[in-house]
Design a protein that fits this description.
single chain, 294 residues, mainly alpha, 2 domains, 0% strand
Amino acid sequence: MRKPNPLQDANFCSRLFFCWLNPLFKIGYKRRLEEDDMYSVLLEDRSQHLGEELQGLTLGLTHFGSWGAYILCAFVEVERTCSKTLEAELCPSRYWDQEVLRAEKDVREPSLMKAILKCHWKSYLVLGIFILLEEGTKVVQPIFLGEMISYVENYDPTNSAALHEAYGYAAGLSASVLVWAVLHHLYFYHIQRLGMRLRVALCHMIYCKVLRLSSSAMGKATTGQIVNLLSNDVNRFDQVTMFLHYLWVGPLQAIAVTALLWMETGISCLAGMAVLIFLLLLQSCFGIWFSSLR
């Protein structure tokens, strides 16, 4: 039997700075890690729970009934096993089954993407706030650094007010770097965990679907196709979840950077942005071309 996962009982600081992994690091420092050293999987990360959350009966562990509680949950991952009383009171949400019934009513094909969005849109939106704050701190850092350079260029030993301002800019730069580091690791940990949950939930759905296939349907679906779905296609969710937020955060960051450059260099900053936009479009064209050659 595997050891209990320390993340389940970790406090706020331990979750914020990943201190709950220190015992595992100590073991790995002393000797080679073995399978018995691994922790047990949390209930909310297990295949049965994730599959039932997307397709079958969900326990509602990820919604908590209100936005404030959910934001707290997404930030520190305070997710606990519901008691049997709460389980009985929660209503079942069959996102995929509901989408199939709605598609039959509207005479259209069911959309798996709609079911996924309805199941995980709240958690993904909260993580979008993380990446927005992270990229915002990256924009603020050059401002503090520029003010510090300006102080050094115009150094006046008799001006104590300027010295205090320089200390403030240095403190702001240090704080922004620290906040960026914390948000960066928190974002990628939680976004990769969300991608893993999507992948596991879809693998659960594929496995259940295969077990329900008729003999005639099994004759049309080869083992290679099923293995390809489980090993390659669903792995795309691990990548797309990480970088999808940059589609809207990137333009906002570009606008902010362009505004700062305009205040410093004037209209000449548009030349650099034009080159970046051209390279972005060129890279997109190459990506479409390479995908057509696969």
